[in-house]
Amino acid sequence: MASRITPSPSAVPAEASTDRRQDILNAALACAAEGGVDAVSIDGVRARCGASVGSIYHHFGNRDGIVAALFFDIFHDQSRSVQAQLDAAQGVEAGVQALVTGYLDWVVAQPERARFLFQARGAVAAGQRTPDLAEAARRRNQALVAWFEPHRQSGALRDLPCELMPSLVMGPVQSYCRAWLSERSGLGGGLPSPTTYRAELADAAWRAVTA
Amino acid sequence: MASRITPSPSAVPAEASTDRRQDILNAALACAAEGGVDAVSIDGVRARCGASVGSIYHHFGNRDGIVAALFFDIFHDQSRSVQAQLDAAQGVEAGVQALVTGYLDWVVAQPERARFLFQARGAVAAGQRTPDLAEAARRRNQALVAWFEPHRQSGALRDLPCELMPSLVMGPVQSYCRAWLSERSGLGGGLPSPTTYRAELADAAWRAVTA
Amino acid sequence: MASRITPSPSAVPAEASTDRRQDILNAALACAAEGGVDAVSIDGVRARCGASVGSIYHHFGNRDGIVAALFFDIFHDQSRSVQAQLDAAQGVEAGVQALVTGYLDWVVAQPERARFLFQARGAVAAGQRTPDLAEAARRRNQALVAWFEPHRQSGALRDLPCELMPSLVMGPVQSYCRAWLSERSGLGGGLPSPTTYRAELADAAWRAVTA
Amino acid sequence: MASRITPSPSAVPAEASTDRRQDILNAALACAAEGGVDAVSIDGVRARCGASVGSIYHHFGNRDGIVAALFFDIFHDQSRSVQAQLDAAQGVEAGVQALVTGYLDWVVAQPERARFLFQARGAVAAGQRTPDLAEAARRRNQALVAWFEPHRQSGALRDLPCELMPSLVMGPVQSYCRAWLSERSGLGGGLPSPTTYRAELADAAWRAVTA
DNA sequence: AATGAATGAGCCTTCATTCAT
DNA sequence: GATGAATGAAGGCTCATTCAT
Fold first, then answer.
1. Which residue is nearest to nucleotide F2 (CA to C1')?
2. Residue at the smallest CA–C1' distance to nucleotide F1
3. Coil, strand or helix: which one is C161?
4. Which residue among A59, A197, B183, C138 is least crowded, i.e. fewest CB within 10 A of its CB?
5. Among D132, D141, D167, which would you mutate to test the C interface (most chain C Cβ atoms within 10 Å of its Cβ)?
6. Could you tell me the distance in Å between the CA of residue D51 and the C1' of nucleotide F7?
7. What does the pLDDT average to over D12-30?
8. Alpha-carbon distances, residue C201 vs A114, B7, D202 (angstroms)
9. What is the pLDDT of residue D3?
10. What CA–CA distances, in Å, run from A146 to A54, A143, A149, A204, B31?
11. What is the C-alpha to C-alpha distance for residues A96 and A201, in angstroms, rounded to an integer?
């Protein structure tokens, strides 16, 4: 991709393979971006990052191990990002909207990672790390519910079952982002960027839960 | 695909052929239910329904042909089912809610087919029948928009961009159903049936679009 | 090995690949003769007999399937051969000696197959066809015991437990043949052919069981 | 293999090193007991005994080095054990029988090691230490022949070729022990312990060689 | 319409071995 | 003496697909 003409050994000293593990994950993401999760093959990864087959197995155990590791990395990055937005928000309405816009902004900023999250979830859920995924999802959900709880008790929010919360608040924005990401890969045309409807989607979340 | 020299279409009883075709599709669905869309292999299907490799190719041309045929069968069945609910609804609010409950009831009635729809969409979109899928999605969407249009002009609905409509109306229910279907396969516990929140989800759709 | 200069299509018309299954087994035996059972690899077999990977799997399911099939083929061939000698023998002493010489002659006549039988037994016993092996061994053993029984009751043979019979009668000849086959592969020198001690080994069997 | 610059052999406590080496051999035996000699892999051993890959190579040079070292350890242990029984025996008949019972008792006392000896012989014979094995086998054999010689000359034993001796004397007991060890791994049922037929097997050896 | 043998690319994985620290 | 990351050859297996019958 970036063909370096002047090696200049002092300029890029250890950047290339400081972290083999990270190199491999980056290569895996590149594979997935090009051909979907199924396109993450040992040989494809190897060809992209220069690691040997054995090295990949040394770090990740097997093919699914790569996909799962990448999935959790991205999943946690996303959670952190949204949580940061939520923490910065003032008031109930701003908080609910921050959940939506924080998510939306993250997706728009790194569409490839977002697409991977959608695509790989099924594979990870079906694999050996099912419990890890369940735990991660539970934690994220609980953080959300914990944030909602006081506002519900204060009467600012409707009295809705907590299992429903994620779908009501995040359903529309996820639905739109998913559709946008799907079209983006195939062709250039289609749906406008989620940013276009940033306000509308945030508003929809608020309408769904406001008392 | 196979050029027949003696067509004589009237001589052949259509029944037998139809059964074989349906057997194959049923077997494909069973494979997918057990191991995801990727688990739909020629040999897996063959083992389940007793058809020969050649027979499968005769009917569907290639592997993706099976997945696509099954996908469109289910897709249309779902569309028909939701449309019937919508047609039966009286008034704007009932109509919006019928979209949600029609979808929800269909999912609950045939969870395996619903799960297949979620799983296979990506594969079909990436395959040779991309245009067919685009056309089918366009038609379904247009029917929905056409239904909304008069009510929007009458002021009963908010003036929202039509690209946003599907996500606002169907986003929450799809989100919840998807989560429910995911958990159903792995474990016994987890999310309550969508039926439990039928009213809430229908209500959420109405809140999202009411003026 | 044998380079044919004149193809002469009429001379060897269908010999080459009339029976793919047999071709594959022959190739497998050749692999084993060269490098032991472990040297029976899909690719090695493929290279020797010209069959495709898929074809091999079509016939034998997996690598162990080839080894097992070859093992049972040879095992039964050996049993048949020894049994024929036994049937032809007149009297008790001649019968006991026929068991030994029948075995010995078979080994000397086809040392590669005999060596394969020794080498592969462990793998077959450890594999999926354990029950088949147990059954085959049981049958062979029972045939032997059934032959001995009347002579034991007539007092011509010692009253020995039937589990011991195979080891007492066949132990020495098997031990010698095994040692001979082991040396044969590595070097040229070493043990004389079992034929050299044909009489002595037959006599040893008779001494072990005679009253 | 590893050139040491500062040997100082007196400074290093030999105990630690010995333990490590023994740990590795024990782990190798455990691997073999579970899945045959082929299952003795560097990584398998490492996982069982906690030694690092490098440490294993330091002690044994390469994979075959482990198998060979273990083989010779066991081989010599067995030889020593049988020899001790032979030395303790009084007279010709007792001596011949001691060879059989010494062997039999050793096998029954350590079946896993005995099984390893059967399984690994081929691999060791085919490896780099072929001459060591040949030498060890020659020595053992010669000791046996040397013991027999005077008794043969005194007319107590038959005048048999010395290549035949091992098979005549040890064939039956080895045959039975081998069969017993094979069954032991797979199932619980099957052949009675060799101890059951201790007397019969010893007697068979005597019958085979007595004048 | 149906059958099933044959094909070969492509994938995952294991394994012995090396080497810098 | 010990450690563990890295290497790459080699092997097993799956799978979509073709084709003669």
1. D55
2. D55
3. coil
4. C138
5. D167
6. 21
7. 78
8. 77, 75, 18
9. 37
10. 44, 5, 5, 21, 40
11. 11
* Start and end residues for every CATH 1.10.10 domain found in chain D: 15-61
Tokens read off for B85: 């609910």
- The beta strand positions in B125-166, using DSSP E, are none
Residues of chain C under the 50 pLDDT cut: 1-17, 187-188
Q: Which CATH class is domain C15-61?
A: mainly alpha
Query: Mean pLDDT, to the nearest integer, of A6-21?
Result: 50
pLDDT, tens digit, 9 for 90 and up, residues A60-116: 999 999 999 999 999 999 999 999 999 999 999 999 999 999 999 999 999 999 999
Tell me whether chains A and B touch (3+ CB pairs under 8 A). yes
pLDDT above 70: residue A172? yes
Chain C CB contacts of D36 under 8 Å are 122-123, 126
Distance of CA A42 to the CA centre of its chain: 22
| Span D53-95, pLDDT tens digits | 999 999 999 999 999 999 999 999 999 999 999 999 999 999 9
| Chain C residues near residue D191 by CB distance under 8 angstroms | 163
Question: What's the pTM?
Answer: 0.88
B176 vs A contacts (CB less than 8 Å): 164, 167, 171
Share of chain D above pLDDT 90, in %: 83
Q: Which fold does the domain A71-209 belong to in CATH?
A: Tetracycline Repressor; domain 2 (1.10.357)
The whole-number Å distance from B53's CA to F17's C1' is 10
Cross-strand bridge partners of residue C210: C157
- Integer Cα distance of C104 and C193 in angstroms: 10
Q: Can you give the distance from the CA of residue C53 to the C1' of nucleotide E8 in angstroms?
A: 8
The CATH 1.10.357.10 domain(s) of chain B lie at 71-209
Q: What mean pLDDT is predicted for residues D135-157?
A: 92
Contact call for residues A51 and A139 (beta carbons, < 8 A): no
Distance between CA atoms of residues B103 and B187, nearest Å? 24
* Amino acid B19: pLDDT: 85
Q: Is D210 helix (H, G, I), strand (E, B) or coil?
A: strand
Query: Strands, DSSP E only, in A41-183?
Result: none
Contact D171 C171 (CB under 8 A): yes
Measure the CA–CA gap between D40 and D49, rounded to whole angstroms: 13
Beta-bridge partner residues of A210: A157
Q: Which residues are B157's β-sheet partners? A: B210
With CB atoms and an 8 Å threshold, state whether B167 touches A160.
Answer: no
Residue B73 has pLDDT above 90, yes or no: yes
- pLDDT bin (cut points 50, 70, 90) of residue B136 is very high
Cβ atoms A205, A193 nearer than 8 A: no
Spanning CA of B57 to C1' of F16, the rounded length in angstroms is 10
What Å value separates CA C20 and C1' E5? 10
Buried b (16+ CB within 10 A) or exposed e, C133-149: beebbeebeeebeebbe
Q: Nearest-CA neighbor of B24 among B111, B39, B1, B57?
A: B57
Higher per-residue confidence, D117 vs B10: D117
Q: Which of A115, A175, A193, A200 to mutate to test the interface with B (most CBs of B within 10 A)?
A: A175
Contact C175 D171 (CB under 8 A): yes
Bases of chain F within 7 A of a CB of the protein: 1-20
> HEC profile for D57-122?
HHHHCCHHHHHHHHHHHHHHHHHHHHHHHHHHCCCHHHHHHHHHHHHHHHHHHCHHHHHHHHHHHH
Q: Select from C118, C175, C210 the residue whose CB has the most chain D CBs within 10 Å, as the one to mutate to test that interface.
A: C175
Q: Which of A125, A161, A201 sits opposite B197 (nearest CB)?
A: A161
Rounded Cα distance, B68 and B123, in Å:
8
Contacting residues 14-33/D vs strand F (CB within 7 A): 14, 16-17, 20
Closest residue in chain C to residue D185, using alpha carbons only: C126
What is the H or E stretch that residue D26 is in?
helix D14-35
C165 close to C145: Cβ distance less than 8 angstroms:
yes
